[in-house]
């Protein structure tokens, strides 16, 4: 198979994505309209005249060297990762280097390890276990093969020890939905989750799909102050909803006695749904609005025929003293599974420029942490 890589229209890109059962929303052409600070293009792989792969490329310029860019394909590209990677990634590198990229960064949507909710729960309870990777896991041979081929091809791993970096998380928590009913999913949850859902129902928490992004953002800013992270501006969410549209993205609002107690955003593409952003009030935590919001999104994902509901990123730490463990325990309560992906990898195309960019990013991160 001889593959050629070149630009494709947004319409052709969208049509290709819509034919895939599982593909990240970060690889849909609409996502380019959200990342307005990046230049973007849709690329296609062709075998003869047939479109057999696609990728959304976000171009980040180098400070003071704007003619060079980092070509970023988040959670992509959408290609056959079981095939000959040189045949797929070689033409990509050739095209991007010829068009000014100093490096490629991509995140193969390929798993390497899976841990059950029971394993994670037992790991948190065991003082001898500090990380997910300390536990036995179900391994995916494709993940090992892709990792080996990338390394042999000169690609450099970028995922840090805590699983979070400048890109997207390597460790995620996912709830399999295929072949299950609502009763099956409820039985799979732990007792605390089922009890909290009953508390929310008894307290009269009502969850509805809405469009009040301003109310969501006010609650999100409150959450950011409490949990000590930097919130995105309201404009970002307005752009996100305008770009993805009502068929792909929904806002869930949980009210108790007229007060907004929790809110969350779900994105769906094909047979996968993602919990994307969430917010909760400091007051009325006892009515369990966050659990009610999650359950509403899970129910809707199941009704839409999704195979997977992703609760997105987790850190691999299981140390009970670590502040991140509370988030893991909340997600584990759904009864899903922790999943490690291959992670993000860089291929330097212009080594001198890449080293300068890497030094700049390291210095910026050092200043941020001071």
TrEMBL record:
Share an example GO biological-process annotation for this protein: regulation of cell shape
Is the Cell wall biogenesis/degradation keyword given for this protein?
yes
Q: Which organism is it from?
A: Kribbella solani
The terms under GO molecular function for this entry are: aminoacyltransferase activity
- Record-linked InterPro entries: Acyl_CoA_acyltransferase (IPR016181), FEMABX (IPR003447), PG_Glycine_Bridge_Synth (IPR050644)
Name by which UniProt lists this protein: Vancomycin resistance protein VanK
PROSITE patterns linked: FEMABX
Name the protein family: Belongs to the FemABX family.
Keywords on this record? Acyltransferase, Cell shape, Cell wall biogenesis/degradation, Peptidoglycan synthesis, Transferase
């Amino acid at each position: 198979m001889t593959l050629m890589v070149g630009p494709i229209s947004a319409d052709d890109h969208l049509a290709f994505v819509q034919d895939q059962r599982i593909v990240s929303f970060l690889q849909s052409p609409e996502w380019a309209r959200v990342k307005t600070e990046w230049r973007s293009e849709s690329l296609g792989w062709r075998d003869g005249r047939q479109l057999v792969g696609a990728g959304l490329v976000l171009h980040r310029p180098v400070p003071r060297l704007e003619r060079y860019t980092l070509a970023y394909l988040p959670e992509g590209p959408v290609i056959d990762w079981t095939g000959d990677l040189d045949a797929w990634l070689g033409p990509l590198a050739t095209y991007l280097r010829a068009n000014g990229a100093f490096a490629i960064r991509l995140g193969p949507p390929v798993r390497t390890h899976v841990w059950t909710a029971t394993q994670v729960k037992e790991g948190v309870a065991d003082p001898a276990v500090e990380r997910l990777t300390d536990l036995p896991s179900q391994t995916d041979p494709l993940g090992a093969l892709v990792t080996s081929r990338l390394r042999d091809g000169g690609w450099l791993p970028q995922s840090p020890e805590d699983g979070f970096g400048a890109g997207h998380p390597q460790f995620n928590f996912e709830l399999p939905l295929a072949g299950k009913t609502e009763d099956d999913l409820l039985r799979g949850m732990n007792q605390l989750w089922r009890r909290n859902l009953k508390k929310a129902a008894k307290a009269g928490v009502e969850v509805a799909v809405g469009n009040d992004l301003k109310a969501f953002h006010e609650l999100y800013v409150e959450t950011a102050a409490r949990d000590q992270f930097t919130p995105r501006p309201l404009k970002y969410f307005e752009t996100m909803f305008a770009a993805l549209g009502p068929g792909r993205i929904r806002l869930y609002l949980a009210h108790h006695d007229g007060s907004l107690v929790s809110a969350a955003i779900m994105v769906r593409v094909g047979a996968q749904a993602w919990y994307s952003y969430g917010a909760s009030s400091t007051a009325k935590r006892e009515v369990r609005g966050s659990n009610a919001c999650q359950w509403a999104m899970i129910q809707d994902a199941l009704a839409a025929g999704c195979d997977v509901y992703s609760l997105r990123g987790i850190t691999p730490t299981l140390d009970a003293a670590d502040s991140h463990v509370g988030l893991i325990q909340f997600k584990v309560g759904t009864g899903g599974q922790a999943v490690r992906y291959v992670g993000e990898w860089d291929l330097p195309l212009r080594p001198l420029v890449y080293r300068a960019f890497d030094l700049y990013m390291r210095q910026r991160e050092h200043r941020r942490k001071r």
